[in-house]
Specification:
The chain is an alpha+beta fold. It has four domains: 4-103, Rossmann fold; 132-201, ATP-grasp fold, A domain (Dna Ligase, domain 1, 2-Layer Sandwich); 207-339 and 390-404 and 418-447, D-amino Acid Aminotransferase, Chain A, domain 1 (2-Layer Sandwich); 457-500. It is 37% helix and 23% strand. The chain contains 18 helices and 22 strands. The chain has helices at 11-23, 40-44, 63-73, 89-97, 107-114, 116-125, 141-151, 177-192, 249-265, 297-304, 308-316, 396-409, 419-427, 429-432, 440-447, 459-476, 481-484, 488-500, and strands at residues 4-7, 27-33, 47-52, 77-79, 101-102, 155-159, 169-171, 197-201, 207-215, 221-233, 236-242, 270-278, 284-290, 333-340, 342-343, 349-350, 353-354, 357-359, 366-370, 377-378, 385-393, 411-413. The strands form six sheets. An eight-stranded antiparallel β-sheet has the order 13-12-9-10-11-14-21-19. It has a five-stranded parallel β-sheet with strand order 3-2-1-4-5. Strands 7-6-8 form a three-stranded antiparallel β-sheet, covered by helices on one side. The longest helix has 18 residues, at 459-476. It is globular. The termini are far apart. Bound molecules: ligand MV4. The site of ligand MV4 has 15 residues, from strand 8. Ligand MV4 is lined by residues 131, 156, 164-165, 200-203, 206, 208, 232, 235, 277, 287, 438.
């Protein structure tokens, strides 16, 4: 086993990986930017190396600086987490060239999956169902027009080097194609330095379901069930679950076998995720493969009973998978809420700042993967994910009940968070019934009553007026669950408002 592992990341995922290292008897090494001197991951590691100024291009995205820290610390391996350099084939190659093990797939596997048209043509040859469309980058808008006519409208224009929705355009009819083509190309050029695009048939109101796989270098590969990731806003996942309310044993087996074909086709090693779109009829199509540990991996860990980070480290060390497919069973249900420093009342705008008070929920069926502590300041430079709140239950309804209870207990003061948004989402009857799709969040936001904006002047009078109006309203028609069952922490803060002004 490795003696030392460097974690080339920050926040909750760095903390998650530090924990796995400790459990395996490995000494964890942190890296940090000037904005992260006081961060939790730095405090929890055995050693920490400053790698540069706050902008990630000069710190967490610097191959050179991270490899230099690895050399200085004597770490034998690097765990990249997610984001930053995790899916960068150049980084994987640089690690290999300097004799450091990257805990992840080879540069070659990353490169093949990063090129979407190449991945599509490789997989269709391996018998994997991909969304009908093109297998080569489009050369011109004229070619796009011909192909789109053949596929039939509506179609999706996607970036050949893309993923995650950037450089993507829905085209409803031929007269919309030229503008969409232009917009998609320039967005792709800006995001990926590659303007090339391809076309797919549009799948209406799909579900987004992904399969977790593990593969070792000895030819063993298993799948660990699915994650339902349909709840997204602007291509950012909001809440994930395992298992999916719509996947039965037959569909799970078919998707799992397909995911293993995908992994084999690129000679995959380590943990990976195969994403599928599932249409209204239950047909599934390969979308892309994520060649990294994912944010939402904990829901799989809780339901499949496997520590994915332990497995990643063992695989990278050359060990054989200790698990066979028949050892894997799914038990119960897990949900994950991504708790962000953002303001749902201001279009989910980031809300960095000092965490004045923090009390994390505890108790049966909970896991909190947090990257913050009380008194710490959420920096403005990075993704404002504070924590992942994961609830586990013997079934979906118990998991939902525990999640709602946990959100009520959760106290975060000093910054805005999306906790109230989750309280309303989890109370929604459509959500509770499991009627999910990628259109769900937009529809939910549409039917959700707007929250009254906090008063800015004459706070005392405004608070009294609001309290009276609230009593009056409540007496006639009870409001949303989040208001009726407001957390005592937040209720206490409301009291504070009347005494010393609005603090968040
Ligand atoms: C699609 C699609 C419908 N048809 N492709 C969005 C992110 C990127 N990974 C793929 N995405 C989509 N691709 C075809 N051919 C609909 C989406 C999509 C979506 C997918 C997953 C989760 C949320 C989504 C929200 C809007 C659109």
């Amino acid at each position: 086993m490795f003696r030392k592992v460097l974690i080339a990341n920050r926040g909750e995922i760095a903390v998650r990986i530090i924990r796995a290292c400790r459990e395996l008897g490995i000494s964890p090494v942190a890296v940090y930017s000037e904005a992260d001197r006081a961060s939790l991951h730095v405090r929890l590691a055995d050693e920490a190396y400053l790698i540069g100024p706050p902008p990630s291009t000069e710190s967490y995205l610097s191959v050179e600086r991270i490899l230099h820290a690895a050399k200085r610390s004597g770490a034998e391996a690097i765990h990249p987490g997610y984001g930053f350099l995790a899916e960068n084939p150049g980084f994987a190659q640089a690690c290999a060239d300097s004799g450091v093990v990257l805990i992840g797939p080879s540069a070659a596997s990353m490169r093949r999956m990063g090129n979407k048209t190449e991945a599509r043509s490789l997989l269709v040859q391996s018998g994997v169902a991909v969304v009908p469309g093109t297998f080569e980058p489009l050369k011109s808008v004229e070619e796009a027009r011909e192909v789109a006519r053949r596929i039939g409208y509506p179609v999706m224009l996607k970036a050949a080097s893309g993923g995650g929705g950037k450089g993507m355009r829905l085209v409803e009819a031929e007269n919309r194609l030229p503008l969409a083509f232009e917009a998609a190309s320039s967005e792709a050029q800006r995001a990926f330095s590659d303007s090339a695009g391809y076309l797919e048939k549009y799948i209406a109101r799909p579900r987004h379901i992904e399969i977790q796989v593990l593969a070792d270098r000895h030819g063993n590969a298993i799948f660990l069930g699915e994650r339902e990731c349909s709840l997204q806003r602007r291509h950012q996942k909001v809440l994930e679950e395992c298992p999916s309310p719509v996947v039965d044993d037959t569909l799970r087996l078919r998707m799992g076998e397909t995911a293993l074909s995908v992994a084999r086709a690129v000679d995959y090693e380590n943990a990976g995720t195969v994403e599928f779109l599932v249409d209204q009829e239950g047909n599934f199509y390969f979308l892309e493969m994520n060649t990294r540990l994912q944010v939402e991996h904990p829901v799989t860990e809780l339901v499949a009973g496997v520590d994915l980070v332990h497995e990643q480290i063992r695989i990278a060390c050359g060990h054989r998978l200790g698990l066979r497919q028949e050892d894997i069973g799914l038990r119960g249900c897990a949900l994950e809420c991504r708790i962000y420093a953002e303001d749902p009342e201001r279009n989910f705008f980031p809300s960095p700042g000092r965490i004045e008070r923090l009390v994390e929920p505890q108790g049966p069926g909970l896991r909190v993967d947090s990257g913050v502590y009380e008194g710490w300041e959420v920096p403005i430079h990075y993704d404002p994910l504070i924590a992942k709140l994961v609830a586990f239950g013997s079934d979906r309804l118990q998991a939902i009940a525990r999640m709602r209870r946990a959100i009520q207990e959760y106290c975060i003061q000093g910054i805005r968070t999306n906790l109230d948004f989750f309280a309303d989402l989890l109370a929604d009857p459509e959500f509770q019934a499991g009627r999910l799709s990628t259109a769900f969040i937009e529809e939910f936001l549409g039917r959700r009553p707007p929250k009254p904006a906090p008063a800015s002047q004459s706070l005392r009078a405004a608070a009294v007026a609001a309290a009276l109006a609230y009593q009056h309203r409540e007496a006639r028609a009870p409001g949303p669950a989040s208001r009726r069952t407001m957390s005592p922490w937040r209720r206490a803060l409301r009291t504070d408002v009347q005494r010393r002004g609005w603090r968040r």
